[in-house]
Amino acid sequence: MQTPDTLAGEPGASGAPGSRAEAASTPAVEISHLRKTYGPVVAVDDVSFSVTEGEIFGILGPNGAGKTTTVECAIGLRSPDSGTIRLMGIDPQADKARIHEITGVQLQSGAFPAKLRVGEIIDTYRSFYRHPADAGELAGALGLADKRNSYYRSLSGGQQQRLSVVLALIGAPRIAVLDEMTTGLDPQARRAAWELIEHVRDRGTTVLLVTHFMEEAERLCDRVALIDSGRIVALDTPAGLATRAMGGKTVRFLPSAPFDANLLTSLPEVTAIEHDGHHIVVTGTGELATAVIVALHEAGVEARDVRIDASTLEDAFVRLTGRHLHEAGEGEPS
Amino acid sequence: MTTLELSQLRSQSEPRPPLAAFGNMVLNEARLAWRQPAGMIAGAGIALLLLIIFGEIPAFKQASSSLGGYSTFDVYIPILMGFSIAIIAFLYLPGPLVSYRELGILRRLSTTPVPAYWVLAAQIVVQACLMAVTLALIVTVSIVFFGISAPQNPAAMVLAIALCMAALFAIGLAIAALARTSGAARGLMAAALYPLMFFSGLYYPVQLMPAVIQDISDYTPLYAAVQAIGAAWVGQFPATRSLLVMAGYALVFGFLAKRFFRWE
Fold first, then answer.
1. How far does the CA of residue A21 sit from the closest CA of chain B (Å)?
2. Residue A117: CB partners within 8 Å, gap ≥ 6?
3. Reduced to 3 states, what is the DSSP secondary structure of residue A294?
4. What percent of chain B has pLDDT over 70?
5. Sheet of strand A103-106, all strands in order from the earlier edge strand to the far edge
6. Could you tell me the end-to-end alpha-carbon distance of chain A, in angstroms, rounded to an integer?
């Protein structure tokens, strides 16, 4: 496992300070050796991870990987076969009442009576909590402000989804558990949801985010656990996973004049250098392109026709599990 | 959360959801009943309509020695009261409860500080109110428009009605517990409702049916309710057997419902 420090200086996807990881002492979520079977099917097998308070932690994996089972165990909806779970130090099986007070949950499936109005549903859920969030602000942030008087049945699928996110956050939870939060949302609504989650996190809420949407994990998550067949295959920052998967980034360019290879291999960012016809391909990490171009410039060499490739979380996933995230289709109950 | 806040949270006794939450849930169930009035109309409307029709049939108003000196209309008043309780309890309890389970509402609730059974309790409150209004209408219409004397033992009548509600709610909850789909709940509901109505004398007075039918009727909750309500109306205290039969159904089916109810 890589520490966040090794990636300091990376353009953080969320723009969050890297020091946050060290700020708190009690982990918001601590899961160790979680195992859950359904009859002969092992849904979750020896999953362990720890989420720091204020972190956005992603659980990423294909359909049926065990993501949903993991978070359902975490919030006490399912009892694990073995392993321990603590949310803010509390065992969900032993003290469900307190877990329900500090968590806000958005489940993948779930509807409401067709003939209740959006405002009635929100106000009712808001009244469940002793220190709730501002209903108007949440509904506004998710574009539901003008839907308060609409019947639930008149909402589109995306609006229903956004309502379920509102309800997950209406109790101003310490830990928000969001299962496929943006599935079925259009790109604009998706960005609005991401902004809201970042906003909520900035106020101190820890977010456990189940997703099979790469861009979401890269944009939002401080760290990501890749789950496949009930096991964590990798756990790192999104950038760290991507770097590991491809051995880093590549910069390909055409030098204006010949130069000594040592000029570049001596740079800390550079791990390898090779020729591709007249082009040079440099592999490395960090601010590779800047380092290479500056070093060449200082030696009086100009880099032309520069192309930078960075591997993505998608590449990492394919490399680590041997398949694509979307192979099995969307909208699964995993 | 800081350590201090956490310790404060822990030092508090069992966290309780605000009571206003239950008020909101009752309000929502009432709104749903109002916005989907089919069950309300069936429960309150049909019984009232039958009461008025029977009241307008001259032959129904004549006292008959085979009915113990009462008229057919007299006999039908408690039957229609039991009928309206049964319709509301069976039409409005199992179906929606099972669909709440199907829709994931009960599961969703069980992730909040509010226990999922509150939605069930909220539903029972709303239906009990609906029943009370319906029964009050039946009694009032009988007195005001058809010259029936007011109930002579109102306390015993309230007791009989409360036991009848408890028994039928328990059966309704047991159906909701056992049915996997709302379609199955409707089927089980019909399978329970029609025999109960038959044995309560809705189709033909029980007093005029064969002895074996009468014997069976004595042990059905709806006929026990009809007998108890009728007795209270004329000033008697209901027969212990009637009360025990209703209490028995309430306990047995209440236990079954609690034992087998699935929240997801």
1. 15
2. A148, A149, A150, A151, A152
3. helix
4. 94
5. A103-106, A175-179, A206-211, A56-60, A223-228, A231-236
6. 26
B31, A107: Cβ pair inside 8 Å? no
Residue with tokens 């699935």: B262
| Nearest C-alpha neighbor of A255 from the set A281, A219, A285, A291 | A281
Residues A152, A226 within the same domain: yes
Residue ranges in chain A modelled with pLDDT below 50? 1-24, 328-334
**CA dihedral sign of residues A108, A109, A110, A114:** positive
Give the residue numbers spanning the domain of A293: 248-310
* A94 and A14 within one domain: yes
| Residue B190: C-alpha distances to residues A169, B94, B185 (Å) | 41, 11, 9
* Beta pairing, strands A249-255 & A303-309: antiparallel
Q: What is the DSSP letter of B146?
A: H
At what angle are helices B182-200 and B211-218 packed, to 10 degrees? 120
Contacts of A322 (CB under 8 A, 6+ apart): none
Closest residue in B to A114 (Cα) is: B32
Give a yes or no: residue A330 inside a domain. Answer: no
Give the other-Cβ count within 10 Å of B8's Cβ. Answer: 11
Q: Are residues A205 and A268 in the same domain?
A: no
Cβ of A107 and B111 within 8 Å? yes
Instruction: Determine the Cα–Cα distance for residues A244 and A23; give it in Å rounded to an integer.
Output: 26
Residue A263: the pLDDT is: 86
Of B1, B21, B103, which is closest to A127 when you measure between CB atoms?
A: B21
pLDDT value, residue A325: 64
Q: Which of A186, A214, A241 is the last residue of a domain?
A: A241
Element (H, E) at A51: strand A41-51
Interface of B to A at Cβ within 8 Å reads 1, 3, 6, 9-10, 14-15, 17-18, 20-21, 23-25, 27-28, 31-32, 35-36, 100, 103-105, 107-108, 110-114
Which two tokens mark A134?
């501002």
Kindly calculate the radius of gyration of chain B based on its CA atoms and give it in whole angstroms: 21
β-strands A249-255, A279-284 pairing: antiparallel
Q: CA of A72: which chain B residue's CA is closest?
A: B111
| Number of domain units in chain A | 2
Q: How far is B82 from chain A (nearest CA, A)?
A: 29
**pLDDT tens per residue, range B187-200:** 888 888 899 998 98
Q: For residue A271, what are its two tokens?
A: 């791990």
